[in-house]
Amino acid sequence: MNARWLAGKVGAALLTLAFVLVFNFFLFRGLGDPTTQLARLPQSSPEEIEQLKRDYGLDKPLVGQFADYVGDTLTFDLGISQRTREPVWEEIKNAIPWTLLLVGAGTLFATLLGAWMGVVAATKRGKRTDTGFLGFSLFTYAAPEYWIGIILILVFAVAVPIFPAGQQVTPGVEFSNWLSEAFDVADHLVLPAIAMTLLLLGQYFLIMRSSMVDVLTEDFITVKRATGLPWHRVVSKHAVPNALLPLVTIAAIQFGAVAGGAITIETIFSWPGLGELSFNAINDKDFPMLQGTFLVFSAGVILANLIADCLYFFLDPRVQTR
Amino acid sequence: MTGARARELLFGTWRGRFGLSVLALFILMAIFGSAIAPYDPEASSLDVLQPPSRDHLLGTTESGADVLSQLLAGARISIVVGFAAAIISAVIGAAVGLFSGYFGGWTDRILDALDNWFLVIPTLPLMVVLSRILNPSLGVLILVIGITSWAGTGRIVRSQVLTLRERSFVERARALGASHWYIIRTHIFPNALPLIFANTVLIVAVAILSEAALSFLGLGDPTQISWGTMLENAFAAGAPSAEAWWYVIPPGLCITLVVLSVAMLGYLFEEYVNPRLLEESFESTA
Amino acid sequence: MRLTRLVASTVVLVAVVATGIGLGSQKAAAQDTGNDVLRIGWAQDPKTLNPFTGVNEEEYTVWALTWELLLNFDPETLGPSPGIAESWEVSEDRKTVTFELIRGAKWSDGRPITSADVKWSLEVLGSNGLLFSAYTGNVTSIKTPDKYTVIVETSKPDARIVGGLWIYILPKHIWGKVPVKELTSTYQPEVPMVGSGPYIVTEFERGRITTMEPNPEWRGDPPAFEEIEFIRYGSQDAVERALDLGEIDFIPEVTAATFDRIGEKEGIETVKAPTYAFTELAFNLCSEQNCPDAKFNPAVQDKTLRQAIAYSIDRERNNEIANQGTAFVAHGLLPSFYKAFFEIPEQDYPYDPELANQLLDDAGWELNDDGIREKDGMVASFDLYVRSEAPADVQQAKLIAEQTQEIGVEFNVQAVSTDKLTELTIRKVDGKPAPEFDTFIWGWGGDPYDPSFLLSLMTTDEIGASSDAFYSNPEYDRLFEEQTTLFDAEERKAVIQEMIAILQEDVPYIVLTEDPYLEAYNSDSLGEVTRLCPAETGTAFCQQVSYEPLLTLQPGTGSAASETVSGVPGGVVAIGAAVVAVAAFLFGRARGRRETEPLEVEA
């Protein structure tokens, strides 16, 4: 692996992250004053407001505040949530695994299903299956994922109650061992994961399909066919591996959509991840939390992009020979 | 590229026909919806969460309001915000792409970095943060969606401008002493316009989805009903538990149909502008 | 293609199996016999157990069970009754109250409850707790001559010292050890919490469950339930569904929209009771002297006009429509919750648009060409602000605007954000209040038993602070001062009634509805409940105000559903099958590849 290339990519990622910090800081300090919230509490005296201002360091000049902000962020001090009075980072730390679980499940199934659908559609280009899949993926792209989620709840959790309608575990229940708790979580994961999968499916399918089509029309495939290799062997052994490559990089573009989907889907299913934290922060106007979740979402997406870049580097032989 | 091909794409393919007719239907709904609504969309009554009946063709909401009336009135917000935000986004994206591609150098580096940043940053969280800070209203909604959705257009325009810049007619114009502004205005911009237009149509689809998502999260205009706020209210009122499918399905379906029709038209325009791009993907299914 | 057929058939198989098993084995209920647990469900749980920083209702619910007040609220009358103090004596000049504490009372950790705890709590929590710092404003000293006596001295007679001192008595030996700075910021008490009430918190998993068990040192009879679980659900909707499914026994908060529907379900009973909170239509009555830069339509300060408006609003009908009949029609500033002091005022403004028109005609308000009344250059056309986050309020505003049209008064309903309305009401110019509104709809909540806070909203002193109608009347101010000094309920009621009469005449507020408590419970598992706080017209749970009603709840015949989950949910089978299918697919591919290897001889 070319170290300079890697350093360049990491540097770019860090720079992007730095801009996020700057943006985050000036947006919130410039436009939103955290202490106005507390001014509206009954019996909150002006002295208390002043004290809060001092605690938040809002009485320093802007540059000083920014330096504080950067320093704090690097030590994972993201402030105190106005709603829960707990450190923002604590809440976020507990929420991240749940979001990763949801997003991971969705991405996994969307990739598998999308890849399979893409292969099928490309090999049956122009026929009904292809049209059907295309129509289906266009529909899942146009349909809001939270709408799909609500319908899933209505059908599979209320009307025909197979799955639970929300949260990550059954409330108020003691589990005899970690295995039954894991099963309970999996049970709760099904519907939100389906919603997340459908959100991402369309794009993965389209990319896989078009890259398969590209590959299938290349010369070497024609040659393989001419040697008498069975068609399905040609597809699975030669076409598919080559078509998989763009999937990795284009998937990176999806990461932003994933963050958005996490917010809405977690809200619907009361899934205790970053998305639900964001939603609560929106309603409570909890600016420190909002700032924190935005930062973590951005960092997550930047990191995912970096990983995708590295994966692409490994998988694409053409890049490696540079 | 002629009008004949455009007509063939728009009216000859089922995608074109579907896209045009559905979009036209919803635009009509946006204009006339409030006028033909059988009830005042916000009028509550005692018939709470009732299934469809003769009086209420799509049933009632949790405050007894008529779902159909809300649906008809809600079209306006989605369409207006979608188009307005897309236009803002197009203007910003086109400007950034043009200046970045044409002038190169530091202008390009800075603008391109800005473009990349907006591309990487997760869109919905960004929109959420901006909306929350600025206090939600219709104007804020349009502004926020507009200034967060331009990056895709910017990138496409930039690459197009880079190609155009090297063409011979531009070099000749420069040799003749034409100013940058003149060149951009008469040579670059008109040639980039079709691409900008095609991309903007797709941005409309994205903008409509964004408005719906923001409204669903409670960041929409609180004084207006849109399809997104209908879904927000339905969910908050426990419509899934009450199996109030008449309240849940219509608004989402409308969003889906509008986005579908706009997206189809958008892909058609892209095909028209750059046939090679998507020929293999879609032409065979025309 | 063979591959497609394999995948498709696997998916179908998986779906069928999952559905079958999912439907069949839902949570296999393991009956917990002999363990009487009261399960309460809510959508919001306490964010913290620390009374210095907590601000939410749910937190109060937990505190009210854990700690007592110096004098508790009597659940039947809401008047003062023994708490930590078993008796009290008010001095002649009413500026000194001497409390005798219960002897031998212990904290749940065995330490004795003494006057030191009372003094510390009243002083430290009373000056630093966000929600507890309004009660000891008049206190000049708190003396503790011995372990069981507390003497509170005030600068002037303050009736709140008896029966209105809503400051929890905390164990000094625990809380006193923590620096105040920490108490008011990040301190989280250790669990199990030490308390004096019937239950103490033994488990606090924020976002999931709060568990309380009987206090071993509780003075009264052992409570009927061995455990109370407050279970947090993801949404209000989920809570109501859980009650329906029998997973929980009691919901302290039901949404207005679902209240009727949930009450119709078998095995579920609902309770509706007025609270000490109301919703009102407020007028901008700020005088030139107090608010030289205020912006509003001067017509709003015409008393006859306001009275006519009051007659033209049909409060009953509006309540039916806007609140689906779940709220209570209000009669004056003092909610009916204050049983000891409340009476329906003589001037109650029943719905009478004819009388309203008559009043306006007689006073010289003439209808202009647009159908709006005018007089002396003033036009009866007003802005009516309402918070967009409160759809019921918005609905009321619209109904009011419709109704006042009948008497020639025009209201322009403006739905704005809470922030915006706050801005308009607290607007100041050169340090003086300069409110910018004609009318608005909003609400207030008071304290149980002691009506002083709500009554204070109309005093001149509160202009620039809590007063948002900016009403000023020296006679009212005088009476207000007087009632704060009267310890005798009868005497106090007479004075309060005089005050209400003044307000009903001047109409700074038209109080529209009293907010309700809406509760629902599982009648199979709880049987009969007693309504208290106050008796008969109160609620089944008395949340935050008194723990007594909780002690009256008895486990019924049925019992709530399972404790431990033993079945394997159907969804997991689907996942397992999918994994198997993918494995089969991959395995199939690998085998296929081996088969074609020999053909790879290339030229």
Please describe the topology of this protein.
The complex is a heterotrimer of chains A (about 325), B (about 290) and C (about 600).
Chain A: H1 3-31, H2 35-39, H3 46-55, H4 62-74, H5 88-123, H6 128-142, H7 145-159, H8 178-216, H9 219-226, H10 231-269, H11 274-284, H12 287-315, H13 317-320
Helix pairs in contact in A: 1-12, 5-6, 5-8, 5-10, 6-8, 7-8, 7-10, 8-10, 10-11, 10-12, 11-12
Chain B: H1 3-12, H2 14-36, H3 67-103, H4 105-120, H5 123-134, H6 138-148, H7 151-165, H8 168-175, H9 180-216, H10 227-236, H11 245-273, H12 275-282
Helix pairs in contact in B: 1-2, 1-11, 2-3, 2-11, 3-4, 3-6, 3-7, 3-9, 3-11, 4-7, 5-6, 6-9, 7-9, 8-9, 9-10, 9-11, 10-11, 11-12
Chain C: H1 2-24, E1 37-42, H2 57-66, E2 71-73, E3 80-82, E4 85-90, E5 96-101, H3 115-128, E6 139-146, E7 149-154, H4 172-175, H5 180-183, E8 199-205, E9 209-214, E10 227-232, H6 236-244, E11 250-251, H7 256-263, E12 268-283, H8 303-312, H9 315-322, E13 328-329, H10 353-362, E14 366-367, E15 373-375, E16 378-379, E17 381-387, H11 391-405, E18 410-416, H12 418-426, E19 428-429, E20 432-433, E21 439-445, H13 452-456, H14 474-485, H15 489-506, E22 509-522, H16 523-526, H17 548-552, H18 570-596
Parallel strand pairs in C: 1-10, 17-18, 17-21
Antiparallel strand pairs in C: 2-3, 4-5, 5-7, 6-7, 8-9, 9-10, 11-22, 12-21, 12-22, 13-22, 14-15, 15-16, 19-20
Helix pairs in contact in C: 1-18, 8-10, 9-11, 14-15
